Amino acid sequence: MSATKREEVCSHLRYIRLELREMHQMLIKEDLLPDLNDAKEVHAQLDALLELLSEKRVKKIKTNFETFNSFGNIINN
Questions:
Q1: CA geometry: angle at 63 spanning 62 and 66, to 5°?
Q2: Per-residue pLDDT tens for 35-56?
Q3: Which of 2, 18, 34, 65 sits CB 3.0–4.6 Å from 23 for a disulfide?
């Protein structure tokens, strides 16, 4: 993983951790459920993080498939 991507992932994780900590404190101290919009925001951050981490994997899979497909075309011709 490149240094820039690693920094971006760390930034996402720090933000998510803070948000979840605040929600946890609300549950423990105030016995309140977090605001639905806050929960949706954290969920969106998790989705963004997953997408960021999955990009490299998807590119690798596509490259491998293209290589396999090219190899198959060579054999068939």
A1: 85
A2: 888 888 888 888 888 887 886 6
A3: 34
